[in-house]
Amino acid sequence: MRLDPFYLIVDSAAWIERVVPLGVKLVQLRIKDMPEGALRDEIRRARTVCAGAGCQMIVNDYWRIAIEEGCDFVHLGQEDLAEADLGAIRAAGLKLGLSTHDEAELQTALAASPDYIALGPVYPTILKQMKWAPQGLNKLSDWRHRVGTLPLVAIGGLTVDRLDGVFSHGADSAAVVTDISLNPSPEDRTRQWIEKTAKRRGDPA
Ligand SMILES: Cc1ncc(COP(=O)(O)OP(=O)(O)O)c(N)n1
Ligand SMILES: Cc1ncsc1CCOP(=O)(O)O
Ligand SMILES: [Mg+2]
């Protein structure tokens, strides 16, 4: 499986409606603390936009709802994974991405046969409090060798200027939240990410 090199993470269908039409091809819907009915509405709205734009949509955390709503990709952290029914996820045909932060988590993740492995935070992040210090680029290279041919996602503190570094250290895809969501012009910044990753995506010159 191949992942787009630009992996955008947003927290609403409204964001997806705003930026996916610009040419985003891989997006995660990461919603925290929302009543289930509203969450299902968000997923359905987001999925409609993504389907129309040829954008792969990944649902964070809510694997049961993702199955019920007919989605095809979920992302789980290690705590999510501990409570998830992997058999049900696989039986429903969903692809699975997993977070890792240290060696033990990598072993746990590899044992679950995921479709990609994410490593983070590569750089300091302001999105959420992390138990882990920034991992740095050398850890990314280490993970590159350990995950073999599995797609590797870098996450945490990524910006357009940091993309060359993460790709040259083995990442296949770079995931981002605040460099876009907190930018004074999220649309312009999204275009910069698309342009900077164009060659890796195989876009025509
Ligand atoms: C691509 C990607 N990598 C890591 C995470 C973090 O997942 P998790 O550790 O479960 O934390 P939350 O995002 O659920 O707060 C992610 N969402 N996406
Ligand atoms: C959810 C998550 N997991 C590891 S780092 C991170 C946050 C990424 O956000 P940002 O791109 O704003 O640093
Ligand atoms: Mg999670």
From TrEMBL:
Keywords: Magnesium, Metal-binding, Thiamine biosynthesis, Transferase. GO terms for molecular function: metal ion binding; thiamine-phosphate diphosphorylase activity. Its cofactor is Mg(2+). Residues 12-180 form the Thiamine phosphate synthase/TenI domain. It comes from the Bacteria. Pathway: Cofactor biosynthesis; thiamine diphosphate biosynthesis; thiamine phosphate from 4-amino-2-methyl-5-diphosphomethylpyrimidine and 4-methyl-5-(2-phosphoethyl)-thiazole: step 1/1. Its EC number is 2.5.1.3. One of its GO terms (biological process) is thiamine biosynthetic process. SUPFAM superfamilies: Thiamin phosphate synthase (SSF51391). It holds the Pfam family TMP-TENI. It is an enzyme of class 2 (transferase). It catalyses: 2-(2-carboxy-4-methylthiazol-5-yl)ethyl phosphate + 4-amino-2-methyl-5-(diphosphooxymethyl)pyrimidine + 2 H(+) = thiamine phosphate + CO2 + diphosphate; 2-[(2R,5Z)-2-carboxy-4-methylthiazol-5(2H)-ylidene]ethyl phosphate + 4-amino-2-methyl-5-(diphosphooxymethyl)pyrimidine + 2 H(+) = thiamine phosphate + CO2 + diphosphate; 4-methyl-5-(2-phosphooxyethyl)-thiazole + 4-amino-2-methyl-5-(diphosphooxymethyl)pyrimidine + H(+) = thiamine phosphate + diphosphate. GO terms for cellular component: cytoplasm. Belongs to the thiamine-phosphate synthase family. NCBIfam families: PRK00043.1-5, thiE. This is Thiamine-phosphate synthase.
